[in-house]
């Protein structure tokens, strides 16, 4: 029997209602791209599979639950009564409960908060067994505890067919949503909500692919990778067959996801309408979304140029450049590093004599329009705001990488085996973007997480005797070129010839549905492409009209990484740290990759890093001329020379590794700003370093370190102590400030954490101190820096790096209630400036002193004045409320929401700053 979720007889023949309160519109499909449950009862350990070398010490977790499909009846029951389909929410409680349960954690209790990630399922724990489409070469076993599919095939085709079938069982609606996002067609498919408009615009601007472009990527990847390329194509075809088989079965059996009815694609009574089969180019569209979100570092060159010009206007060219460079922190000596043994990996460094720079004339830059001919709700105020936000996100270098890793060498563990706690921080959605699975078949043996619709291989997880994970790295693989216009605004000079830009259009229209009542509207997205990539801005340079384009090394190459993932799943390929590094070298997205087996650990930074022309500074736009192109760049294929594998940051068996989207290694420059003395990775580094120094590290100790960091306010731990030193440099006579200082110090002494008074209280301990710091931070930053920088430069700098990223604030592609916090902010600037004012030694200081012009007494006055204001700011002002939270509800403002991408809703949980999917691993033996 194909897997189907339970029906309720009352709803078997219920007509679709005209409105479904809160569904899809309020928390919209667009959110991505926008009593407590008791812990899971521990399932009896399965007898170790013969190919499992983890000894029962591999665990994982992925909230809210494995089941991401729901019938119409189940959606209506959930909306009306809060009932959940089986396995839709059973990993949310254990995940949430770690926030208050970590303090008493032991190794024996780990699977109270995580799943047993051993291979196989004990016979007593088998919930169901099916042979999809009646095939005899594959079975899908689901376990009772979490409903995770364990796919076992006797043929390669059958194995991949089963993987596709299981993916559709668990994530069909989500997969359909994201293939439309990747094609820029979300509003037509799911509705015209403003946030849906913003999401499709964000991705279409950077990847305006035609069907021919998508197919060309497949053809190229297959042609360039020999036997493995052919195998990847065969695997993808089998995977698609499995997806489409489930579509047909669920359609005829009428247990397909209910969202198809609510969005008008199917009729709940007659079953009229279709669910389109998936085709291979859909997988490329899906890959382009994931790659753009998490693995595409770079950009921001035009914004960099604007802020540099503002600095030079404020201070003069020489001093202004120094000021700009000090804020840029390309290679800050105080930055926390993943490879911390002193090995240098120079990349993206500042050239001694920059060549080819094409800085815009002051005030001449305009953003290239994307939306044309908008009508109805495609042209209203909400649509305009969503479009502006999407443009800012698409063009920024501040990619929200999220994800972290803690890996300790066996030399420092109690068992002598390496331990890893790691995973991607991909936001929180219902259903989740990732899905869990185990795949066992010819040439494949792995368990872990994969992005829905791309799960022909496990992308992050474990093999027979090794485990791997990734964090977003963000090194610069994107450059901006200034192409000189000729004839009109749609022709440009390419190697001296006036050349027409290519115009790519996508016209979308929508009308109200039960899921999204947004009134009818339409628009056309239009992108002009050059050989140097899509046009993003218009400006003049020295009075000459130019278009600024964006060229990305992974553009037209989103498919290439499939080979690396295939290798990671192949037990005959990965058998050591060296073969692991060889596998991830085939992944062209910008990621940090981590590895652990029973004896070794390893790290490698992946991505196609282009070799730039001599003298080109990647921080700024350069002229679109042959002399400044990437070395051996071919515009027809968008290929070039890339830095060799040996030049990428990498390491084997370092004492420990940490990563939280921080700087990888000495002299390796990342594209985003903020790699300075204070970074959220410090929270991990400080804790793991202490554990390693003490020795005898256990799995529970490393989980505790991760959890402790996940609850800590970075500003409180790393910046607040020196702020209080300045204030306390003289007796505080202001009663309001004195009371605030006492509260802040008490909170700091308690650890500076944002934690509940007790599990489920929904009230923070030291809540008033937290409110004060949340209110104070933006006030003190502005008062500290704006007078010295001037309004124009201060504004330009905040465009490069936002001031704050507190848990309660909306930031990044997922908005508020997203968990991930403290990735980007001015904490390093404040830290360096305040330490300088205090007379402390600062390596890599800012070029000027800002707080009070460098005067301790003046700085103190500024801090006290802004602290007074913050102390008097009400909670309802600091936390203004939203559709979920009332004004002033601090805990709720911070809380994590599983943003609905379908019809099933879940409860919000207390804030944690940790990976969404997370592994805890300690292998005991090796093949």
* Beta-strand content estimate: 15-25%
Q: Describe the sheet with the most strands.
A: 10 strands, mixed
Determine the N-to-C terminus distance. 37 Å
Proportion of residues in helical segments:
25-40%
Beta strands, count: 30
Number of helices: 26
Uncertain spans:
1-46
Q: What class would the helix/strand composition place it in?
A: alpha+beta
User: Whole-number average pLDDT?
Assistant: 92
List keywords for this structure.
927 residues, alpha+beta, ten-stranded mixed beta sheet, globular
Describe this structure in words.
With 927 residues, the chain is of the alpha+beta class. It has 26 helices and 30 strands. The strands form 5 sheets. The protein has a 10-stranded mixed β-sheet with strand order 3-4-5-12-13-14-15-23-24-26, with helices on one face. Strands 7, 8, 16, 17, 18, 19, 20, 21, 22 and 25 form a 10-stranded mixed β-sheet that branches. The chain has a 6-stranded antiparallel β-sheet with strand order 2-1-30-10-9-27. A hairpin with a 3-residue loop joins β23 and β24 (601-605). Residues 1-46 have low confidence and may be disordered.
List the helices and strands and how they pair.
Blueprint: E1 58-61, H1 72-81, H2 92-101, H3 110-113, E2 115-116, E3 126-130, E4 138-143, E5 149-153, H4 156-182, H5 186-190, H6 194-206, H7 211-223, H8 226-253, H9 259-262, H10 280-294, H11 301-315, H12 317-328, E6 344-347, E7 366-367, E8 371-376, H13 381-395, E9 404-408, E10 419-423, E11 429-430, E12 434-441, E13 444-451, E14 460-462, E15 466-472, E16 478-486, E17 488-494, E18 497-500, E19 502-510, E20 521-530, E21 533-541, E22 544-552, H14 562-568, H15 577-584, E23 591-597, E24 601-605, E25 622-623, E26 650-652, E27 656-659, E28 666-668, H16 681-694, H17 699-710, H18 714-718, H19 720-727, H20 735-749, H21 767-789, H22 791-800, H23 827-837, H24 856-871, H25 875-878, H26 890-894, E29 899-900, E30 918-921
Parallel strand pairs: 5-12, 6-28, 11-29, 16-25
Antiparallel strand pairs: 1-2, 1-30, 3-4, 4-5, 7-21, 8-20, 9-10, 9-27, 10-30, 12-13, 13-14, 14-15, 15-23, 16-17, 16-22, 17-18, 19-20, 20-21, 21-22, 23-24, 24-26
Helix pairs in contact: 4-8, 4-10, 6-13, 7-8, 7-10, 11-12, 11-22, 14-15, 16-17, 19-20, 20-21, 21-22, 21-24
